[in-house]
Amino acid sequence: MDLEVKGVAASPASQAQAISGREKPLQQGWTSKSWGVEDPCLPVVPRLDLGSLVDSDDEEQDVIPNNLPAPTDKYKLNYQQYKTEVKEGHKQYSQRNAEKTKPQITHQQTPRKKIDEKCVQGAEADADDLTTLDRKALLQQGYADNPPIAQRGTRRSDAEIVAAEKKKQTVTEQVMTDHLSRAVISDPEQNVTTEKQSAHILPDSKMAPLRGRKRTLHETKIKTRSTLTENMLSHKVQFDGRVVSRNGHDACRELVGFFFTHDQSLTIYEYRQFGKNRTNVLPFIQKNIYCHQRGRRKGKQYQLGDFYVGANLTFLSSDHPGLPGSIKENTLLTLRITNVDQIALHSLNCRTDSVEHDDITNQEANDRLVFKAIQDVLREQLHKRGVRIVTRLGKYLRQVDKEGNGLLNKADFKQALEVFDLEVSENDFESLWLILNDNDNDNGKVDYGEFKRAIIGEMNEYRKSFVRKAFMKLDFNKTGSVSMIDIKKCYCAKKHPQVISDLRCNQGTSFSRNGASHIMNIRHFTEEEIKSSFLETLKDACSKSEEVSYGEFEDYYEGLSIGIVDDEDFVHILRTPWGI
């Protein structure tokens, strides 16, 4: 095939001549310059000008064909729906941003609020008491600056709702099976033969009463005093719960309980999932009538009004021999209710007249007011340094607990407050101690986890559920602790605003969702820096440098939660780097 360069035809003969002419100077050791002088008649290929290779409007018009078919109605409809969703999401984000900006602006008038609104990146003057660890921990709040994608969040929430309904149905079916068939079969009363019945039993008669004969499994349709019916079991309230424990394996157990109003009894089951399709439901607390073991209602029987989100259910570990060994090490088992079937609860409240203890209710309300007064003061002090103080306080209390039972005396707690500069008045501390030290069996000692929750507070159960999800994703072996290597592998900082907003950083000032302006052109953090800052602050909270327990992981996000007002912002901070 003939080639043509600048109007000069290149025939096969000329090509062969050019090749032979090129081989000759190479054999004689000539340079390319001398070769060009020797044969000046050879065609010269012009230099390619890269600057001229710029797309123009004329070229684009020539490239794009004009006979494209018109878009279909289905495509137009999808485009309009997408456009509407984007506009609606931006509108909602703008409204939320405006609502959050107003209170922040009003609070900026006080010197304390001006200090709290300082830039995390250290661009402004250091007029507050933030340390390097505090600033690195506050970088995690940056995940909330980018609003989540509405469509992806909706799809994920729908999947979670379906999984929760499937879990609820599985556990309910197992409970009905256990108490309608297995309980009847295993009832000892069926094997009891009274003297009156035995007198009428003939030795060789096949017509002997059913209780006097040797029965097989399919012949046990006998009613006893403990026999339940489906109608009786239908009057129930279902609730989800978790174990309040420092043991990570126990704290992440998925518990589902039922309170039956016909006899004021309750039962709790543990839901286990192996992979995606295999599940198992086993009894955790046997069905029986139980009473409170701690607090103002100690010795009182559980009633319908005791079941609400955030309520504690206490049991004696010695009454349940089937509990795991790690739980039986403690005298009391404390369960926290995380979710309640509100529809069933409202329906049963309308049918039954629940007896309320007015005196106890008033005392509990006063206790909550004491807790809230102390928590408001301390949370104001921990607004920007919550991660460092909460994690180090937990680490300090674990070191002081030489016996390892989680109990400390009053002097230990006072010393801890002084070490971390947490200011609590003497009257408030004494009121707090009288409320917590209600168990004479502890010899004047209080569980330090309970003390820490009382003075600082804790995140709500909605936030804590996502903390458990993130930890369970890391702890796939369910050991209760995770290595730093696994955390480093799973943590992803690609979607952090500091990583994906290079253009906005170069422009100067950007505004976060809490309304505070940040000078972004002075310091920009890369993906590796965001990850290393997280690992450094988390490692500071750990007793072991290369291992993180569930309690330490929860303390980290407990401190981070103090400075975040909106629940969805906190959930987005967990969803984005952990992919949950």
UniProtKB/TrEMBL annotation:
InterPro entries referenced in this protein's UniProt entry, alphabetically: Ca-bind, EF-hand-dom_pair, EF_Hand_1_Ca_BS, EF_hand_dom
Biased composition (Low complexity): 9-18
Gene that specifies this protein: CAPS2
Keyword Repeat (UniProt): yes
Domain EF-hand positions: 388-423, 462-497
Region annotated Disordered, chain positions: 1-35, 93-115
Biased composition (Basic and acidic residues): 93-102
This protein's name: Calcyphosin-2 isoform X2
UniProtKB keywords: Calcium, Metal-binding, Repeat
SUPFAM superfamilies: EF-hand
